[in-house]
Structure formats: C-alpha cells, structure tokens
Amino acid sequence: MASSEGKRHHHNLVPLAALISKEMRSEKMEKPTVRYGHAAQSRKGEDYFLIKTDCQRVPGNSSSAFSVFAIFDGHNGNAAAIFTKEQLLNHVLGAIPRGLGREEWLQALPRALVAGFVKTDKEFQSRGETSGTTATFVIVDGWTVTVASVGDSRCILDTQGGTVSTLTVDHRLEENVEERERVTASGGEVGRLSIVGGAEIGPLRCWPGGLCLSRSIGDMDVGEFIVPIPYVKQVKLSKAGGRLIIASDGIWDALSSEMAAKSCRGLPAELAARQVVKEALRTRGLKDDTTCIIVDIIPPDPSAQPSTPPKKQNKLRALFFRKRAHDSANKLSKKLSAVGIVEELFEEGSAMLAERRENEGRRGRTEI
User: Fold this and answer.
1) Across the strands, what pairs with 231?
2) CA angle 217-53-142, nearest 5°?
3) 0.85 surpassed by pTM
4) Could you read off the pLDDT of 67-116 as tens digits, one per residue?
5) 143-200 tens-digit pLDDT
6) How many helices (H) and strands (E) does the chain have?
7) What is the sign of the dihedral through the CA atoms of 151, 227, 223 and 190?
8) For residues 308 and 221, what is the distance between their CA atoms, to the nearest angstrom?
9) How would you list the strands of the sheet with 154-159, edge to edge?
C-alpha cells in the first residue's frame, strides 16, 4: 500500500523547469500591454523627452522588461536638459543592487531614483554651466508605476470612472507653500522681481538667481536652496489599467489635469498626445515649449475595462493624489483602492536627504 501511494505521489510530481516555465508564461499573460504616443510644439527649444521601452531588470531576460518615459524642461539654455536625458537613467539603474528579484527591485527603486537625481545634478554642476532643468521621470513595470520629479513638469493618471490622480508635486514657489517655507527656513529669500519705482511683478522667485522653481537639476548659480531631490511616488494599478499623461508646463499652464485627461479620452495614445497639445495651444497659444507623452497601460483582456463607468465612482472624479499631509494622502489612497483603481505603495516628498533616509528606513513601502 505504502509503495503504491509513493508511486502515485511520484507520478504527480512536476519538474522544476516546467514549473518555472509555467510561472513565466503566467506572468507574461498577466502583464499589461503598454502603448504610448508623443507630441510637441517648440518655441524655445529647451524641452527634451526620453522614451525607452526595451529596458530589462535582468539583461537578456525579456520577462524582466520595463519602460521609461521622461520629460526634461530646460531653462537658461538646453545643456542641463540634454545632459539629464543622457545620464539620469544610467545613474538610477546603477544605484540599484544587482541580483534582486522583481519585488525587491521595485522596493529599491525609490531610493535609487533619489540617488540618480542627486548624482546627475552633481555631475552637471561640475561642468560649470548655469543651465537647469525640470525632470519628470516615469518607470512602468507591469502594473506598477514609479514617478520621480523635480520642477513643474507633471504626470497624471487617468483611470476608469474618470478619476484623475496627480502623481507629482509642482515645485513652483508661487503655488507651493511648503517649498516656500523650506527655502526661507534655509536662509533663502523668496520674492517677486522688482522694477524701477519699487513695483513687484511676475511670479515668486528664489534669490539669488531669481528661479521660480524650488527644485531642479543644475542651476549652479542659484544657491543651495534649490535642490535636486525628487518627490517620489509609486502606485500599483488595478487590472483595469489606466492612462498616464506626462507633460511640460507648456501644457499645464493652459490646461488643468482634469481638462487634459478629458480632452483625449477615447483616443489611441499617439492621437491623444496630439490632441492634448492641440488643446493647450488653442487655449493659450504657443507661449512656451509644449511637450506631451501619453502612456496607456492596457489589460491583457480589454473586456476587463468597463466601457460605462459605474455611477458610484463619480463622487471620486475630483479627487487626486497630492501630498500635503501624510494622513490625508493615506485616506485618499484607501478611497481609491476601495473602488479598485490604484494602490499606493510608496510616497516621499522630503527635500532633505537625512530626513528622507530616516523616513524610508522607518516606513519603507506603505501597503494599503
């Protein structure tokens, strides 16, 4: 009896290679399709973008593929934008320990993004050039989206039911009270441009230098108050997928996040990007470089995405992810998770490296 039981059990064993192969096939089937489009109109020639869809966590292993999408909006020349486009990805990947599995790799990514931004800034400043740039850097790995940003280029997420989430924070001194307080507490001066007669005009700026942004890469002539440390957010989409809209301020000065998302719903990515740029130009004209990348994260089974959004989700239409207080961000994340839209995995906005490392060490990932 024992012998026949043993034979039966032995007969049901599956070779390890077959299990691994099955797991890889399953993972491939469950991964979403990523489609993208890009459009731009140039006025100053200082906007640059990066689209790279053939990255691999493990070289030679197609199942470890991920995609990178980024926008760099330069100022005071295009040198910083070009340098950051060419160097930032390598510096980020170089900061991730080798040999990590996918989950460990994703957990290491936020800190690596910070290290990559700081290293890129340090290297560019060593060249002695005064140019600067924003950077909105997006990594899509399966259903997980990780965004790091400095400056006022923006990334938003449009998900089922018309819920628009902001995955970045604008580092504009005019609108961002927390950044104004940080700059002044560090000894910087925030004020408007003074003209003859003492009148003040234009947006709030940081002095010396007169930069309107509180965070950027480059800008060696504006003092230590302008930092390259990015706001980082990592989210996991539901199996319904979603659309990312990544754009420079030429878009956002003309359109709200909700207007941009609404203007291109139902269009494929390439046409959607053109439509957002067209709408921005129609609203405001070509007053600045205007660049837009659309990224669609599409479920393997298109039927998983309902064509008619449930009415119960309409009350969330005006909600967005925007860190002001950690508790409020958590409450919002739970509401969005409750309707199966997105799960917040990580968020950190501190501009101080010491504080950020302490927060990451204590909290790590925030599972909701």
Assistant:
1) 149
2) 100
3) no
4) 999 999 999 999 999 999 999 999 999 999 998 999 999 999 999 999 99
5) 999 999 999 999 999 998 889 999 999 999 999 999 999 999 988 899 998 887 778 8
6) 10, 15
7) positive
8) 52
9) 33-41, 290-298, 242-247, 154-159, 163-166
